């Protein structure tokens, strides 16, 4: 039991670490702070070592004599969650890289019209909801995740035509528009990953109740 | 061969089959990009369902082996590696599907100049090659071959890093091709991830083979 509790704690810590990676990437965009973006890339190493630690703790836990079959679903969800979280951390690094390679601060008008910061805030909110569904093992906050993800898609669907128009009218500002395009694509992927994560949590909590 | 050994070798076969499915997705995706063949793109999207089914089956089979045999040491390490490889393969399938969808959504055949100047086709070829090699490394349990992936991935990173500049240059000459250019940029970003997934798989293979080697050394010492 103690083993299981400590793995659970490690997973939650990993979640918090990724939350801070996402938040820092967002701040790095808004403040155009390349040092902060560099920090995100450096911290990636800590994310990777947390992932390895959780994996190896799961391995040790399974190998224990006291390991019981009833702990298996827990281990499976931890392994999956761990991988998905690491991947969301990767997206934060990709975003940080875009920022580092952008020469001038982002055009505020473009940030507003593409809803980039708004979309990013939504992603962080959805991510937090997925954590509480894991922490509390309840599927209701999981359902909110899917509703919020739909709202994200709705706003996101307008950002693509906006960006295209911007490029048409400001061909000299491609160095601004392309990174924003890539960042939005990364955010889309993060939302997909959070949905996968939440599906796992819901299946796990439901199986537990049944 | 013990019962557990037999189960493990079945799992290995299932993983190889999954790999073959993902390879065929990537291969078809590449042909569909080169020939602008939407039927083939549609096929890639259809195969995705089979990939998802295969992924679930491998997950479930691993879980069953955990439950029935309580494997330890190198066997446990192998199963954990397969679980991770499985997820990474499924991700690659997703990427192939994503690219196929982009081809479906594109109205006119891709401009030759755009494909050439961005090196997206070479990148696609390279990622396919990496997936093939990493499969052989898994089949043969060859850690040197798995390690070779890390270097190959550099080409994908290189194209990916240059992508924004190349697309910018292209759009300056052909401002009317915004849609296609953004699509190709998205493809490049995704293909770069195939390299990342392959690296993850290589790490798992090395990790597992090392456990096996260490186990053998220990045995000899006894």
Description:
The complex is a heterodimer of chains A (210) and B (222). With 210 residues, chain A is mainly alpha-helical. Helices cover 87% and strands 0% of the residues of chain A. Chain A has helices at 2-30, 34-63, 72-100, 108-113, 116-136, 139-169, 174-209. Chain A is elongated, with a radius of gyration of 19 Å. The model of chain A has no long low-confidence stretch (mean pLDDT 93). With 222 residues, chain B is mainly alpha-helical. Helix content of chain B is 91%, strand content 0%. Chain B contains 7 helices and no strands. Chain B is elongated, with a radius of gyration of 20 Å. Chain A binds chain B through residues 55, 58-59, 62-63, 67, 69, 72, 75-76, 79-80, 83, 87, 90, 94, 101, 163-164, 167-168, 171, 174-175, 178-179, 181-182, 185, and chain B through 59, 63, 66-67, 70, 72-73, 76-77, 80, 83-84, 87, 91, 161, 164, 167-168, 171-172, 175, 178-179, 182, 185-186, 189, 196.
């Amino acid at each position: 039991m103690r083993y299981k509790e400590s793995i659970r704690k490690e997973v939650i810590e990993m979640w918090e670490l990724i939350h801070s990676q996402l938040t820092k990437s967002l701040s790095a965009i808004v403040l155009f702070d390349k040092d902060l973006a560099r920090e995100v890339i450096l911290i990636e190493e800590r994310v990777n070592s947390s992932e390895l630690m959780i994996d190896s703790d799961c391995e040790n836990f399974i190998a224990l004599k006291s390991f019981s079959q009833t702990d298996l679903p827990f281990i499976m969800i931890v392994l999956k969650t761990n991988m998905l979280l690491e991947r969301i951390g990767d997206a934060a690094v990709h975003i940080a890289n875009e920022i580092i390679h952008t020469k001038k601060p982002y055009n505020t008008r473009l940030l507003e019209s593409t809803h980039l910061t708004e979309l990013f805030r939504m992603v962080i909110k959805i991510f937090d909801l997925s954590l509480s569904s894991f922490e509390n093992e309840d599927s209701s906050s999981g359902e909110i995740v899917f509703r919020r993800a739909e709202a994200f898609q709705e706003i996101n669907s307008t950002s693509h035509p906006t960006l295209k128009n911007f490029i048409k009218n400001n061909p000299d500002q491609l160095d601004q528009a392309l990174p924003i395009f890539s960042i939005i694509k990364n955010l889309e992927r993060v939302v997909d990953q959070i949905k996968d994560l939440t599906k796992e949590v819901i299946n796990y909590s439901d199986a537990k109740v049944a | 061969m013990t019962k557990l050994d037999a189960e493990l070798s079945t799992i290995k076969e299932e993983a190889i089959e999954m790999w073959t499915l993902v390879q065929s997705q990537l291969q078809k995706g590449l042909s569909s990009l080169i020939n602008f063949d939407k039927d083939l793109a549609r096929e890639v999207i259809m195969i995705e369902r089979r990939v998802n089914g295969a992924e679930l089956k491998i997950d479930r089979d691993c879980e069953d082996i955990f439950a029935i045999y309580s494997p330890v040491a190198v066997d446990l390490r192998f199963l954990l590696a397969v679980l991770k490889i499985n997820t990474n393969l499924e991700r690659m399938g997703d990427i192939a599907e994503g690219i196929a969808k982009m081809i479906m959504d594109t109205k006119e055949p891709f401009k030759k100049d755009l494909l050439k100047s961005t090196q997206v086709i070479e990148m696609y070829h390279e990622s396919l090659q990496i997936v093939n090699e990493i499969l052989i490394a898994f089949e043969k349990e060859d850690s040197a071959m798995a390690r070779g992936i890390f270097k190959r991935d550099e080409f994908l990173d290189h194209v990916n890093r240059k992508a924004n500049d190349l697309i910018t240059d292209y759009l300056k000459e052909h401002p009317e091709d915004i849609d296609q250019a953004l699509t190709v940029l998205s493809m490049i970003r995704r293909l770069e991830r195939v390299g990342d997934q392959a690296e993850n798989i290589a790490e798992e293979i090395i990790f597992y083979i090392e456990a096996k080697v260490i186990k053998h050394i220990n045995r000899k010492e006894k």
